[in-house]
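Exercise 3.2. Students should predict the tertiary structure of the chain below and write it as structure tokens, then compare their answer with the key that follows.

Predict this chain's 3D structure.
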Amino acid sequence: MKLNNSSKIKIVIPLLAIFLALNLSGAYAFTTNGTGRVFDFDITSGKNTNISSSSFRTYSVVGDVISTINSSNFKTEVGFLRTLPYLNGEPCQVSAECVGGFCCSNICGISACPVGGGGSGETGSSSSGGGASAAAGGGGGGGGFFTKEELKNDFSVSQDSIKGHLALGDSKTKEITIKNTGNTNLSFSVEVLAVDEFISLSEKRFILEPNQEKAVGILIEGKKLGSYAGEIEISAGVLKKTVSAIIEVESGQILFDVKLDIPIGYKKIAPGNELKTQTTLFNIAGPKKVNVALNYFIKDLKGNVIAEQSETPVVERQYSFTKSFTIPKGAKPGFYVISVEAIYANSFAVSSELFEIAGEGEISGIKIKNLYSKSVLSYFSLAILIILLSIGISHHIPEYREIKSKRLRRNFSMLFAETDQRIRIGQFGEAVKSYRRLDSVYRNILKSSMDNKTKMDMYKNIRSIYGTLARMKNEEQSN
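Answer key:
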């Protein structure tokens, strides 16, 4: 079969385009003859700067992609042009070929043709050949083309902070999910900073394709008493994101529990301002007045202490109070941790909270009260809302507390029986695990509305179990 010139062009042009695409490193431009016109395309290693000049303009075209070639900087698509209109003043045969929409005397224009022969170009459309038809109708062959899509590198992390609260010698697991939200493969590196003594990662290096995600397991171990702050850094090339990490390790036997809270208005403050906290102490040992040593620390996420205080309040049953700390004026912007340690006899309890020191010019969290100062109506509406909520809550809180207390009693009884049974049959290791779960339930009971007599009875049971386990451990070590 003999091919005419037009067919030869249609076959040669795509082959030429593919050849040039595979040799981009040495090519700078190429010319193709489609629809009887000559078109120049720039091929560069970056974004084209030749958008327009005094002699030409650049237009977007429509085409079919038949192949994709990836490089470190681009995604290059190879295919065929479908539509490429002519500029004003260029030769034409039909109006559909022109950007301005009119072909008058075989020249493209932007205004209607004069009456009486001005549209002669339209009559010649039948002799335009296959090339003209393709340009006018948007179909058929044409020159090869390249489109360049700029690569996007980005990723997300499921959470911005983790906290591990555990007893000395215990461990627990958590996880974070990392997702590639860009359009190219990313190579990830995960590293623990400042708290690597306590945290181990299931994976430290991996590759994610676009829209692919991976859950990274985090093993936290209570190796020594105290509160520790650090970060988990996730890197993908030049991209970096961090997850704040707080580790709280306390003694297995707790005689005094402690809880530290930061009011919402002080979660973000400026250097030189005061940080206010609410501290609550729970006397688990019994209803007697004792001195409890409290140590406060403010640390950055590299573990550096920027402020600390100590005091020894007298506590009988439960003691709650507010305390203020002045943030140093030279403190750098970023996230920090404030922690309190409660020490009594052999008991060591700890509680921590994350807060942020704002940069220069940022609004302090203390100014949150301005949100409610816009109008008297805002205050009135807020008061009505509080009254309605109080009425609704007053009806349901007693019922909720009773349900919660029953559940805690049931869990305590089941775990106490389980621990006692394991002790009787000599399963020391399993008995210790049951005891730790029992102790965790008891901590929740202390914070509940359960009467003090019941709490004291449960405390005696806890002490009895603890004493038996201590004797078993001594006997095991002596043997």
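Discussion points: The CA atoms of residues 41 and 210 lie 30 Å apart. The first helix runs from residue 5 to 21.
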